[in-house]
Amino acid sequence: MSSDVPGFELPLRLLLAFRTLIDELHAELAKQGHPDIRPMHGFVMQAIGPSGTTAVELGRLLGVSKQAAGKTIDTLERIGYVERTADPEDTRRKIVRLTPYGLDALTRSAHIFDTLRAHWATELGEDRLRALESDLRKMTPANPWRLDTPGWFGTL
Amino acid sequence: MSSDVPGFELPLRLLLAFRTLIDELHAELAKQGHPDIRPMHGFVMQAIGPSGTTAVELGRLLGVSKQAAGKTIDTLERIGYVERTADPEDTRRKIVRLTPYGLDALTRSAHIFDTLRAHWATELGEDRLRALESDLRKMTPANPWRLDTPGWFGTL
DNA sequence: TAACATAGGCAACCACGTTGTCTATATAGT
DNA sequence: ACTATATAGACAACGTGGTTGCCTATGTTA
């Protein structure tokens, strides 16, 4: 404990940094034709992926109930980011797929994140940024997926 | 853009690191007699502070409506972390104060955060950790307060 | 073929946010 | 001093996203 840095600053800065990046992402997404998308939607669409999923699968992946996943899919469907299609091999299932519009949001997000990272690299230096990422990797679970992000902050 | 690191990893790791710390905090708080406290409550109680506030003031500080602040105070009051007392100088106002139990949660939180930071220091080295904190400080707004954290994830 | 498991959807509920409105009390202006 | 305005707190109605419980339809297995 030979440090004079209070421990609460670290989580605060981590959250603030995350927020900053996400806010910048969505400001830019809004400019690029995606004004209605919300942070959670990005996570969910990432989880859906280009090949699609089902509500149950999505719920498992995100760590929420299938009903919650279903509701989120409802919302994304309403604003045109995903669509439900029948599964010919199992008529119970409905495959949730990204629409071209949804896919566009995803590819733009990836590009914007790259740009934001590049901005950090010019501010901090590529080596410092790599060190930062490496340190965070060391202190967080190996597999980033199965981060049951949606609702985590709300429910707890 | 001479990096092979995809940009989306950075925000993901930041969030994951935050989550990890908060989860560890609350696991430890639960062991120390605070099983019902939730992440948001910690932020709110931190904002209330040892000297107390009012609902309006708290709402302004947290960036939410006074009604939302009032509801949160209701919850914290119900589980015994704060109490409302009359303000003798302005009978409209009700001062929200931390109870001894609430104050206990706050001091324990501070101590646990210090311990968690010390753990990071042994894993990464104090110098690397300081560099990480410094870099995050550089990339985030100067004043950590007025992070309107509660509900940010939910509403967006 | 009967029994069980699974997918999706519906209802009721909870937590937390919003806006609008109402009452009570301060405070400022004439 | 009295009226007008501003502020604090509470209440209601609503939106969103989470939960659990239950129901129906369809696969799967004994």
Write the layout of secondary structure elements.
The structure is a homodimer of 156-residue chains.
Chain A lengths: L8 H23 L7 H10 L6 H8 L3 H13 L3 E5 L7 E5 L1 H25 L1 H14 L12 H4 L1
Antiparallel strand pairs in A: 1-2
Helix pairs in contact in A: 1-5, 3-4, 5-6
The structure holds a DNA duplex (30 and 30 nucleotides).
Give your account of this protein's structure.
Two copies of one chain form a homodimer. Chain A is mainly α and 156 residues long. The first copy, chain A, contains seven helices and two strands, in the order H-H-H-H-E-E-H-H-H. Chain A has helices at 9-31, 39-48, 55-62, 66-78, 100-124, 126-139, 152-155; strands at residues 82-86, 94-98. In chain A, strands 1-2 form a two-stranded antiparallel ribbon. In chain A, a hairpin with a 7-residue loop joins strand 1 (82-86) and strand 2. In chain A, helix 1 (9-31) crosses helix 5 and helix 5 (100-124) crosses helix 6. The longest helix of chain A has 25 residues, at 100-124. The model of chain A has no long low-confidence stretch (mean pLDDT 89). Chains A and B meet through helix 1, helix 2, helix 5, helix 6 and helix 7 of A and helix 1, helix 2, helix 5, helix 6 and helix 7 of B. The structure holds a DNA duplex (30 and 30 nucleotides).
